[in-house]
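Margin note from the TA: students keep mixing up input and output lines. Inputs are the sequences; the output is the structure of the whole complex. Example:
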Amino acid sequence: MSASDPLLRVAQFALAFRTETGLATVLDGVDLEVARGEILGLVGESGCGKSTLVRAILGLMPAGARVLGGRIEFGGQNLLDLDEAVLSRDIRAGRIGFIPQDPFQSFNPLFRVGSQMLEIMRWHAPPEIGRSRSAHRARLLELMERVRIPAPDTALKRFPHEFSGGQLQRLMIAAAIACKPDLVLADEPTSALDVTTQQQILALLEELAREMNTAVILVTHDLGLVAQYCDRVSVMYAGQTVESFSHKRMLEGVRHPYTRLLLDCHPDRAGALRGIPGIVPGIARMPPGCRFGPRCPAVLPICSTQRPKAEMLEADHSVQCWAVSGSIAARVPADA
Amino acid sequence: MSLFIVRRLLLAIPALFGLVLLTFILIHAVPGDPAAVLAGDQATPQQIQALREHYGFDRPILEQFIRYVSQLASGSLGVSYMTQRQISTEIIERMPATFELTLFAMTLATAIGIPLGVISAYFHNRWLDHVLRIISIGGLAIASFWLAIMLQFTFSMELDLLPVHGRLSQGLTPPPFVTGMIVIDSLMAGRLDLFRDAFAHLILPGFALAVAPLATIMRFTRAAVLSTLRREYVFYERAVGYPRLVLMGKYVLRNSLVTPVTQIGLLLGAILGSAVVIEAIFDWPGLGSYAVLSIATADYQATLAVVLIVGCVYALINILVDLVHAAVDPRILEQL
């Protein structure tokens, strides 16, 4: 990737939720970069803040959420400075597309799929597609052909409950790219589908993204999927990005103990399915220092008191871990 | 669909039979001798006995009931003991007045209640929501007869803005009978002066009747919209940038209509009951005042006829509610 001009740059982004006991930090110093046309895998266990991050990029944070700091730069603009109306009008669908987790629940059951997709285009279609409804329809029909929906013409007139999950998710892909966005956020797009459909959906998404040079953030908890489709990977744990690396380091080069354990969780590699002992800490009870410390097999004394700093191992590999820092593990950071 | 309607109509028959049976028993359980009322204060016991035998009041209740039901089956509601006219004729004369009043009240309640409910939900737990909810609790708590009298007091007697009672001012002749609803008939006859006068007469009783259902519709709409807003598809619709007004006014509203529509159906039935009181206060020549009169004069065939008519209307409304549900939700349509 070209580090000089990323399409999306999330820098030291921190977000808290208001709870009964006060503010709970759910995202804490998240760093993320996506270049134009790049497919980034965002990986981590459930509850580590992946979906929250995706929602924050779209400006859809739940009530009671408060941005504590950082920036979300998109096309040179800090999205955190834009208000809801502007985000809705200028960013969503038109520049950042969205593919939801559960296509069954994400189509409005009372409206024909065609009219729902046309509603998106009506407000967000770029000038080159045209303003007219017939132009939008033509574009949709072409896309439905591309995502292999049989008989697109009649399919547009059908209701969501008349489609299978795989078909619905393919329609979601078509809807996400309909207005030619620069970036598509796919929030675990296959977790509601069966395994055979998963591969088809992701292959289709990759194919279309490459063809249109659209960047994708693919949120998943499955490192195996990431290995197949992504150019680069960011691993999140408990609201922090702990390791980022390019595809070629995927199999052997990963360093963070959490990433290594995640890789081992995949039955293809370990032979038998292994888990990671313990659970992601609740947002109200984050451990001090390294948040993975209590579950980490390579834990050091310093881990329980100080948060590791991001360290660039290579141009395409950064990691936040005291153990990886190796000989420098004992060194006290300059600002401590 | 037509099969569905036929089935529902057939199913209504046993329910109506039960209704007639129950009313019949209740009428005979309360004290009151129709023969004595008919004969008047001066009658001798022999005259009363003669009347009793003439109308069959001396027969066993079961026999009276069978005779009544077979009379119904032959299509007659019977003859009023008091006026000696066909009860069906009297009801047809009075029904339009009640329909005019209740339809006006329900239109008012729906047209105001649904938007207020949506607004209340949209401003969930903000000051506007609280204000609307307090007002709606007031609307539910207020006794409609008290409100009716207060309205008469304020707007008719004090401010002299609106007529105190009746359907038309003295000296005006109603338009030719088409629907029997003066507001509609006057428009059909092109008589705007009559329309204005009839409409002015409708406002106070209509409003007094509308307040309680308005509050109910508002509360049910608010609850339904709040639950719709939590749906996954509403999140998706926001994530793809549907403008706020389109989202609320078209998509969320339609998804929230099923419960309020059911309530409107039930309320239409219930409002026929409250109309009894309001009609009495505003001297409105409808079914309600007819029912009161028939009870006061122990004219039990007339009472039964009113109950039966209201029951039929109720049954029809319920079928209508199901059809409206089907129109709102394509999944229900498939099941009909």
